[in-house]
Each structure stands twice: as structure tokens, then as C-alpha cells.
Specification:
single chain; alpha/beta; Rossmann fold; four-stranded mixed sheet; 13 helices; elongated
Length: 412
């Protein structure tokens, strides 16, 4: 007999054969009144901190949904549950555990791991078994160029990280009665997949406005000096300087533009909040724009948690540390499932997959709507601006915390 199939009553006639037939004909992992989601997350290894953030985000979502009565599927209420395994921060283990969750544990709905490398290993497995796979912590654009039909991401992919810097520059031009095509850009990107994705997004939006790119430099992985690029910046006098070089590049551009007294009206970078530029170089960092996935001060709201700030308060009370964006996007992944189960009116994975594909919802993490590749194209990235030594949300304007300060002036 199967070890566990349901807490619902089954007709006893037919004995073991009937029970086995019913078990193997099941189209979803719904144990009694529970819907079980599967997750391989990094509880050990190099991603363990963010793996914990991911798991905590999932757990808070499940607790809150269940507290509110669970999910109604065709009029029947179900509670949610997550089965976890530790992927040990290794792609091979993540793929192995995904196979185990699906083929041995019978899970029909997968949540994501932390990191694009692990998701890259998992996605072929969920695709093979036609299991919906909703993730919130893998931003690589290449994940959504493989033709996957079952992979969906609630976060903005890496090509969206600094698009809003281009859009803000266009808005500023229009406000000053100038054509956005007169805006001149200077760019410097580390020669790695993430930063080159960021570059592609910037170029796509710059081309849309007809902006001129005066500098398009590649930065080495172990960059220690940006003087060559910044000397060119001084010579051509761009309106916008955009940099993606992870934490090291963010710290360098802030320090060296200050040291070289190079003043560009708008400067934007990835990773400058994690590089702690406002905390360690507040004077030099003043006015810098920083890309992020989410912020608690945004005016996003949903029916489960209320506002983004309400979510952050609940998270901190539950886990005793400030809510990181990794947790918020993990929570949003579970909310996508809750919404899709209800709209599908079924636990058939194909019907749930189709419901996920047609998602159009607002969450405390932001709007979620997937394109045909599985990317969330509705949620914009957040742009902070360092103002008075603090990170203030200035974009997207609709949910901004304060107004953009332009032009940025080099602090004396």
C-alpha cells in the first residue's frame, strides 16, 4: 500500500489494488487537506546565509496563508506545507534533490533555490517532469532564453537592474524640455555574465530613447583602479555614468570620482548598498543611485501581509533580523502559488502551470506578471539615491520614498 495518499475518505471496495491505482493516478501532491511544495535550499555551504533568508521567506508565507485559512481550490480549503532538503550550495546536489522531491516524494510543485547556478541545474529536471517551478532568487537572464515552460521568476532579471537609471535620465531631460536622445551615457561593466546582462538592459533602453553612448568600457574581474575609464569620463562630460562591477566596482567608482573630482549629473551602480557606500563614504557617495530588488518603504500592498513595511515588521518579529529582499521575493513565490491554485480551481500541475503563466497580481514585494519566457516584467527594480548618508527610494516614481536630487554635485 502507499505510505500516505490522503486523509480524505476512500471507498474501501477493491482493496489494495484500488488504493494503489488512486495513488498513482493522483495529479498533485495534496496530502489530505495539505498541498505540499518542494524546496532544495542552501542550509549549509557558501550560500547558507541567503539560503536561510530564502527558507524564512517561504516559511513566513506558508504560516500567514495558513493563518488566514489556507487556499481554497474549487471551494475546498487546503493548508500549505513545504518539504525541504539542503542542497549544500552545490548545483549537482540541487539537481539531485529536485529529482528526489519529484520522483520519490511525489512533489508536484517546486519552489526555487538561492542562486542562478543552482536554478540552472534544477530547471531541466522540473522541465522534464513538467512540474511548475516558481523561484525568487535567481536573476540570470540566460535562465529565460532556454525555452522553459515551467520555470517562473518573481524577481527582476539582471538586465533590469539599471534600466531605471536610463528612464530617470529621460524623465529629467523631458522635465527640462530636452529630447531624451540628447542624453549622453558613459558605461563601465565588469566582464562577467551578470554585469553583461545589466549592460544589455541599459543598452536596450538607451536605444529606445536614442541616447548616445560615449564610453562603453569592460572592467576586469579583479579591478583595483578605474582611473583610465574616469579620465575618459572627465574628457567627454557625459550626463550619466553607469557602472556594474559588484561591490568592489561600486566602492571604486565612488571613491575615485571623489578623489579625481569628477562630477557627473547622474551616477548609478549595482551593489553600492551591499558595498556600504553610504555608511563608509557618505560624503563621496551623496547623490549616487543604487539598484536593488525591493525595499520595505515601497507602497506595495497585498491581501496577505498588507504593506511592504507591514511585511518587514512581521518578518523581523518572527525571525529577529531585518527582512532582506531575498526573503521578500521568496515569500512572493509562495503567494504566486496560492493565487494560482485558487484561480486554477484544480491541483492538476498543468492547470496550475497555466494559471501561473497568466498571473497578474500585486504583492507586498511588487507587481507580478510573467511574459512567455517566465520572467516577471511587471516589477521594476528599485533605485536608491544616497541622500544625507541614507538610502532613499527614488524610483520607480509611483512607489518612491522621496524625489530624485538632480544634478548630483560632488560634495566638498
Amino acid at each position: 500500500m502507499p505510505k500516505r495518499i490522503s486523509r480524505t475518505h476512500l471507498v474501501a471496495s477493491g482493496g489494495v489494488a484500488l488504493l494503489l491505482a488512486l495513488a498513482f493516478a493522483a495529479v498533485a501532491e495534496a496530502t489530505g487537506d495539505e498541498i505540499v511544495l518542494g524546496a532544495a535550499v542552501s542550509l549549509t555551504g557558501k550560500y547558507s546565509v541567503n539560503g536561510k533568508n530564502t527558507k524564512d521567506g517561504y516559511d513566513l508565507a506558508v504560516e500567514r496563508i495558513n493563518e488566514l485559512g489556507g487556499v481554497k481550490v474549487a471551494g475546498k480549503p487546503y493548508k500549505l506545507k513545504v518539504t525541504y532538503y539542503d542542497d549544500e550550495s552545490t548545483p549537482a546536489r540541487a539537481a539531485q534533490l529536485t529529482e528526489r522531491l519529484i520522483s520519490q516524494d511525489g512533489v508536484k510543485f517546486m519552489l526555487g533555490a538561492y542562486g542562478s547556478g543552482l536554478t540552472k541545474a534544477m530547471a531541466p529536471v522540473t522541465e522534464k517532469y513538467k512540474v511548475p517551478h516558481v523561484e525568487g532568487n535567481s536573476a540570470a537572464r540566460e535562465l529565460f532564453t532556454q525555452g522553459y515552460k515551467y520555470l517562473f521568476a518573481v524577481l527582476s532579471t539582471s538586465d533590469y537592474y539599471l534600466r531605471d537609471a536610463v528612464n530617470l535620465a529621460a524623465d529629467v531631460a523631458k522635465e527640462h524640455r530636452k529630447d531624451p536622445k540628447t542624453v549622453k551615457l558613459a558605461m563601465a561593466f565588469e566582464n562577467d555574465p551578470f554585469s553583461l546582462d545589466v549592460r544589455d538592459g541599459v543598452l536596450e533602453d538607451a536605444k529606445k530613447y536614442g541616447m548616445k553612448v560615449l564610453i562603453d568600457d569592460k572592467l576586469p574581474p579583479e579591478i583595483n583602479d578605474m582611473a583610465a575609464t574616469l579620465t575618459k569620463v572627465r574628457a567627454v562630460k557625459p550626463d550619466v555614468l553607469i557602472v556594474s562591477g559588484h561591490e568592489k566596482g561600486a566602492a571604486l567608482v565612488v571613491r575615485q570620482t571623489g578623489e579625481m573630482k569628477i562630477d557627473v549629473p547622474m551616477m548609478a551602480s549595482t551593489h553600492c548598498d551591499s558595498a556600504r557606500i553610504a555608511e563608509t563614504m557618505p560624503r563621496l557617495a551623496e547623490g549616487f543611485l543604487c539598484a536593488s530588488q525591493w525595499d520595505r518603504h515601497l507602497s506595495y500592498k497585498d491581501r496577505w501581509f498588507g504593506s511592504a513595511d507591514d511585511y518587514a515588521n512581521r518578518f523581523e518579529k518572527r525571525f529577529n533580523y531585518p527582512a532582506p529582499y531575498q526573503a521578500a521575493e521568496s515569500t512572493a513565490s509562495v503567494l504566486v502559488y496560492a493565487d494560482a491554485f485558487a484561480r486554477a480551481g484544480s491541483l492538476d500541475p498543468e492547470k496550475v502551470r497555466d494559471a501561473i503563466a497568466s498571473t497578474d497580481m500585486m504583492t507586498m514585494y511588487g507587481p507580478i506578471k510573467f511574459d512567455t519566457t517566465g520572467k516577471n516584467t511587471a516589477k521594476p527594480m528599485v533605485l536608491y539615491q544616497v541622500q544625507g548618508g541614507e538610502y532613499k527610494v527614488v524610483a520607480p516614481k509611483k512607489w518612491a520614498q522621496t524625489k530624485l536630487v538632480w544634478p548630483r554635485k560632488l560634495s566638498q
